[in-house]
Amino acid sequence: MSNAPIPPTLLTRNPDEGFGLAIRLSRFAVKLTQPDGDIRASLRDQYGRDPEMLILASQVVATHFATIAAANNYWKDQQP
Amino acid sequence: MSNAPIPPTLLTRNPDEGFGLAIRLSRFAVKLTQPDGDIRASLRDQYGRDPEMLILASQVVATHFATIAAANNYWKDQQP
Amino acid sequence: MSNAPIPPTLLTRNPDEGFGLAIRLSRFAVKLTQPDGDIRASLRDQYGRDPEMLILASQVVATHFATIAAANNYWKDQQP
Amino acid sequence: MSNAPIPPTLLTRNPDEGFGLAIRLSRFAVKLTQPDGDIRASLRDQYGRDPEMLILASQVVATHFATIAAANNYWKDQQP
Amino acid sequence: MSNAPIPPTLLTRNPDEGFGLAIRLSRFAVKLTQPDGDIRASLRDQYGRDPEMLILASQVVATHFATIAAANNYWKDQQP
Amino acid sequence: MSNAPIPPTLLTRNPDEGFGLAIRLSRFAVKLTQPDGDIRASLRDQYGRDPEMLILASQVVATHFATIAAANNYWKDQQP
Fold first, then answer.
1. Are residues B55 and C52, on separate chains, in Cβ contact within 8 Å?
2. Which residues of F touch A57 (CB under 8 A)?
3. Distance (Å, rounded) from C-alpha A44 to C-alpha A36?
4. What is the mean pLDDT of residues C25-33?
5. I need a surface site. Which of D41, D53, D56, E29 has the fewest CB within 10 A?
6. Collapsing DSSP states into helix, strand and coil, what is residue C25?
7. CB F55 within 8 Å of CB A30
């Protein structure tokens, strides 16, 4: 999963790519508040072992995923 | 309940399957942040006995369920 | 209030029944994470006396209630 | 502000009454989890002096107010 | 910023006024739970120096702002 | 990223600018509660090194981003 900047569109091909974008957006907010990559890596190491923080991080992803899913009209046109 | 990757569609047959998908999405975010399955199992054991974390985890599920319910137009066409 | 599984429809007759369903969905997520009923009962006893956890639990209910209210078009057709 | 049960409609005459209903819904969830009125009164006393809990309680109210505002089409027809 | 009661309409002239209203709604919920102005002032002093509480308070404002923005159709007709 | 006041419109040219606005709105709420710039700078230093607070701050940004994305109809007309 890349930490590349925000793409010019929220449209993705499927829910899986939408989920990946939700994670990128979650990380991007952290990056803007804490630009130092070394500090961020150390923080990530901390919260990767803390269940409460993992849950809270997962809440941020869920919020972004809701936005991205709406933007894609829930990928209804891409259904198999 | 499986930890399989995100399906190609958010459409499910009924609210119960939608709820199952909401739980999968919640766990998937954690998996992407903490890929080590052993650590995740140990964390799950911790938060399974901590009421506050269980409530917070349940908040993430509620957020994903809202998205999935909207995607399915609240299963109005599947009503009994 | 029952802990029965998720019903086949999110439609309820009025806001009060919708609220009851929101509580069931909140508990159902906890049940899927912690299947042991005895542990759950003990946890419920803990958070029933902890104001912060009660507030957090009430947040989950509010999130589910929002979904259910939308599913029922806010019960506008059932108004007295 | 009353603790009466949930009314048969989410429609209110104005934002102020909608806000009152949001508070009732917030308290109602707590009541269903902790039915003992004396314990609830003691918990309310605790969180009334704890800024973090007051903020979290206010988050629940905000979530219910969003639902009620949508139910009332944001009171656009009642504007002065 | 005033602590005046809730206005009869959620419509505001622009996003800035909408944001002000979101803050009023956030404070109003706290006021209804803790009516004592002196206690509230002391609590505000506490959370004004606590970064976590400031962030949580800012989450409540964001939730109300979402409601108000929707009520105003995102001020699309007032764009410069 | 600027701390300038809220712009007269929520419309932005693309998701990236929308994200920047979401961050400005998040900071603006904090500024209104804690007007002292020196205290704010010190608090920002604290939470920039605290993973839990960074995650919570990122939740506020996600909530504002949802509002701004809806205001912009998810930038569907600006897609490349």
1. no
2. 55
3. 12
4. 91
5. D41
6. helix
7. yes
Instruction: Mark C6-44 as b/e (b = at least 16 C-beta within 10 Å).
Output: bbebbbbebbeebbbbbbbbbbbbbbbbbeeeeebeebb
pLDDT tens, residue by residue, F56-68: 999 999 999 999 9
| Rg of chain A in Å (alpha carbons) | 14
Residue of B nearest to C58 (CA): B55
Whether the pLDDT of residue C1 is over 50: the answer is no
Q: Confirm if E71 and D69 have CB atoms less than 8 A apart.
A: yes
- 10-residue block means of pLDDT along chain A (80 residues)? 74 96 94 90 90 94 98 83
Q: Of D62, D68, D21, D27, whose CA–CA distance to D48 is shortest?
A: D27
pTM: 0.94
- Give the Cα separation of A6 and C70 in Å (integer): 31
Q: F4 falls in which pLDDT band (50, 70, 90)?
A: low
Sign of CA dihedral F78, F57, F59, B35: positive
Model ipTM value: 0.94
Give how far B72 is from chain C: nearest CA, Å. 10
Does residue D10 sit in helix, strand or coil?
Answer: coil
Which of E8, E10, E47 lies nearest to residue D51, judging by beta carbons? E47
CB < 8 Å to A5, chain F: 16
pLDDT of residue A2: 44
pLDDT digits (tens, 9 = 90+) for D26-78: 999 999 889 999 999 999 889 889 999 999 999 999 999 999 999 999 999 87
CB contacts of E25 in chain D (<8 Å) are 19, 62, 65
- Could you tell me if C56 lies within 8 Å of chain B, comparing CB atoms? yes
Q: Looking at chain F from residue 24 to 43, which residues have their Cβ under 8 Å from any Cβ of chain A?
A: none
Q: How many CB pairs under 8 A join D and E?
A: 97
